[in-house]
C-alpha cells in the first residue's frame, strides 16, 4: 500500500510510524485514519516486529488531533474499527506501542498518545483535550483513559478547563514516562524500545494482555483467571519459555525467537 499520510520504518524488531501531515500539524482526516488502520494491522500481524513507536513529522507537532478545517469544509468524517489513527479503539494488540511526542499533542493527538503504553515527550511537548472549546468532546478515548491513568480529579481539572499541560507537568501528573530535550523524543522512545526488546516478546505480550484484562475485573478475578489468557498460554507453550531459564543457567544472553 502506498502511504500518503504516514511513513513506516523498521529498525530490527522496532516499527517506527510517523504521522505525516506537517502542513496541518499532523492533524488527521478520514483517509489518514483508514491508512493508519492498515499500518497498525500490518504491525500487529508481523511476527518479526515486536514494538512500535508513533511520532509526528517535523519538530512542532506530534498530532493536532482532528482536522477541523477539513471537517468545516465538508470533508467526510469517520474511521475504521481501530478508532482514531487506527489505534484508539484497538484493544487486541498485545505488542507494546510507544508515543514519541515531539510537540503539540492536542485532542485526538493526545488520545493517540494515551492509547499507547508509554509516552516519551520532548520538553516542547504540549498536551490538551480542548474539544469543549470548539463544541466537541474527546470521544476517541480521552474522556475514559485520562481519568484511569491519572485519577478523576486531576483528569477533571484538565478536561473541564481544556487547559494546556506541559511535558513537565504531564510527567508530574503521571501520564508521561520521561521528558527529554527538544528534538530527542524519537531517540528517547528508541532507547525504551531497545530495553523492551531485550526481553522475551512472548513475556511482554503476556504481561500487557494480563494488565489490560486484569484492570477490567476485580483483583481476585484477575489473579484467578490470568493463566487462561491467550497470551499467557502462548508464552507458556513457547520456545522462549524454555530458552529463558536455559540461558540463565548457562550464564549467556537469551536468544529470543518470539514463538
UniProtKB/TrEMBL annotation:
Q: Keyword Membrane, does the record have it?
A: no
EC number(s) on file: 4.2.1.17
Q: Which residues form the signal peptide?
A: none
Tell me the GO molecular function terms.
enoyl-CoA hydratase activity
Q: Name one Pfam family in it.
A: ECH_1
- Keywords carried by this UniProt record: Lyase
Task: Name the enzyme's class.
Answer: lyase
Which example biological process does GO assign this protein? fatty acid beta-oxidation
PANTHER family registered for this protein in UniProt:
ENOYL-COA HYDRATASE, MITOCHONDRIAL, ENOYL-COA HYDRATASE-RELATED
Give the similarity note: Belongs to the enoyl-CoA hydratase/isomerase family.
The protein's name is: Enoyl-CoA hydratase
Q: Which organism is it from?
A: Bradyrhizobium cytisi
Amino acid at each position: 500500500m502506498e502511504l500518503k499520510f504516514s511513513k513506516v520504518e523498521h529498525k530490527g524488531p522496532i516499527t517506527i510510524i510517523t504521522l505525516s501531515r506537517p502542513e496541518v500539524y499532523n492533524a488527521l482526516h478520514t483517509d489518514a485514519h483508514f491508512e493508519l488502520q492498515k499500518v497498525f494491522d500490518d504491525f500487529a500481524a508481523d511476527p518479526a516486529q515486536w514494538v512500535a513507536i508513533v511520532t509526528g513529522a517535523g519538530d512542532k507537532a506530534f498530532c493536532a488531533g482532528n482536522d477541523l478545517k477539513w471537517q468545516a469544509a465538508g470533508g467526510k468524517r469517520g474511521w475504521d474499527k481501530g478508532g482514531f489513527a487506527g489505534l484508539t479503539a484497538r484493544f487486541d494488540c498485545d505488542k507494546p506501542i510507544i508515543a514519541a511526542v515531539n510537540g503539540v499533542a492536542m485532542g485526538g493527538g493526545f488520545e493517540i498518545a494515551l492509547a499507547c503504553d508509554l509516552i516519551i515527550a520532548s520538553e516542547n511537548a504540549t498536551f490538551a483535550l480542548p474539544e469543549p472549546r470548539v463544541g466537541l468532546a474527546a470521544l476517541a478515548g480521552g474522556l475514559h483513559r485520562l481519568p484511569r491513568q491519572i485519577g478523576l480529579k486531576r483528569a477533571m481539572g484538565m478536561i473541564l478547563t481544556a487547559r494546556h499541560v506541559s511535558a513537565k507537568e504531564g510527567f508530574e501528573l503521571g501520564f508521561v514516562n520521561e521528558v527529554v530535550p527538544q528534538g530527542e523524543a524519537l531517540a528517547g522512545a528508541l532507547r525504551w524500545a531497545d530495553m523492551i526488546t531485550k526481553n522475551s516478546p512472548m513475556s511482554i505480550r503476556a504481561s500487557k494482555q494480563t494488565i489490560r484484562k486484569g484492570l477490567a475485573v476485580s483483583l481476585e478475578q484477575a489473579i484467578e483467571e490470568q493463566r487462561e489468557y491467550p497470551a499467557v498460554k502462548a508464552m507458556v507453550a513457547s520456545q522462549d519459555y524454555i530458552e529463558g531459564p536455559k540461558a540463565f543457567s548457562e550464564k549467556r544472553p537469551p536468544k529470543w525467537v518470539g514463538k
